Amino acid sequence: MKDEKLELLVLEDEKSAIEALEFILKPKYKVQFATRCQEAIQKFDQDHFDVVLLDLKLPDGNGADILKHIRQNKPDQEVIVISANEDVQGAIEIMKLGASDYLLKPVNKETLLKSIGKIEKNMRLSWEKTVLLQKVQDSENRYHGIIGQSLAIRHICETIAKLKGTETYILLMGESGVGKEVITHAIHKQEGDSLRPFVAVNCAAIPENLLESELFGHEKGAFTGANQSRIGKFVQANGGDIFLDEIACMSPTLQAKLLRVLQDKQVEPLGSTRKIKSNFRVIAATNQDIKSVIEKGTFRQDLYFRLQGVEIYIPPLRARPEDIPLLVEYILKNLAPKFGVRHFSEAAMKTMMEYDWPGNVRELKNTVENVLILCRDELIEERHLPPTIRQTRTKCEQNMFSHLRANIKNYEKDVIVAALKRYRGNKSRASKELGISRSILYRKMKALDLEENEIF
Fold this sequence. Notes:
Blueprint: E1 7-11, H1 15-25, E2 30-34, H2 37-46, E3 51-55, E4 57-58, E5 61-62, H3 63-73, E6 78-83, H4 88-96, E7 101-104, H5 109-143, H6 151-162, E8 170-173, H7 180-189, E9 198-202, H8 208-216, E10 217-218, E11 230-231, H9 233-236, E12 240-245, H10 252-264, E13 266-267, E14 276-277, E15 280-286, H11 290-296, H12 301-307, E16 310-313, H13 324-339, E17 343-344, H14 346-354, H15 360-374, E18 379-380, H16 387-422, H17 427-434, H18 438-447, H19 452-455
Parallel strand pairs: 1-2, 1-3, 3-6, 6-7, 8-15, 8-16, 9-12, 12-15, 17-18
Antiparallel strand pairs: 4-5, 10-11, 13-14
């Protein structure tokens, strides 16, 4: 569908109308004509047509009957009705039967091409959406929920595949919102064991005085408020994975205890003297530059070395804009039960791909959902996007034109310098060679800050 011409079936019996339609349609589309109802039905039943153009009044039948036949056999078929009759009620009835448009004879070229063009645009959008949905499905199935087609995402997925069946520790790094949690779940899911434990802890969301108990557990009476014993997350993760999100936010004191647990694979709950063995795999994540926090002294280097069995860096969304169409389609698919089937126009998608997305995938998801709430149209245009995103397109265009002007200026300068060098500074001969007057040459040299002593 991408670059193919649309195939049209035209049912028309008037010779002059056929000649006019041939002149309008054949340069852009593949067209077959039928002059009788039975001929049209036969061609329609045997071949595929993207659009059917249907005259209502024919010598051997009624175009409305043909339309009913089309609807019974191919309910989604696009049909444009052409009629010499200005009967409003008749037009309404025809539209109720499912015609895409109703045009009056004599058909205006621009009107007809606009009507077909609208259908073609919708068909291409539908085709593109189908292709994107297939890519999303392939990505979900192949990469356990990771959505993307960029080289960076494919490399990450190849790395993850190599981790299957291993107990090596994994450190995920990347800005907030890039999808570290999604990648963590993909690492866990690929083990293929639904009974394998998965335990997640956000180290930045739990106060320091509670995080130690959360991770390692406690005995009854270990501290004020500890009315009963509690098993810690590391013991809960026995035989599975524990995800330590925002690990760089952990205090140095707690880091020291964590290091011992990682080394010994034994956990000592608060208020206890006994140690509990636990076999777990750690997946840690941070949105901070880990080497910088080590240099600042807020993160232990020996803990970093223990965690860095495999390091995976997830680039920000601005570094992989080719992932945006798939991510948008994935978000639309998940929101379809709430908002219905929706599409983004090509211009809207291009604008989103040019935006920096400082909040990464999280910001993209929130933006798409907000747009769906505020815009009720099936097709979301560029004008429906938030101003901050639309302004990016304007800045990109301004930068492009600025870059173009600079290139033109440099090219003009190089050409003038070359002409002056060729004629050893003779401006009369140089201006003649350039096809400009001597006075214009002087003005251009001044505008370009060209001094003769710089040329020779």
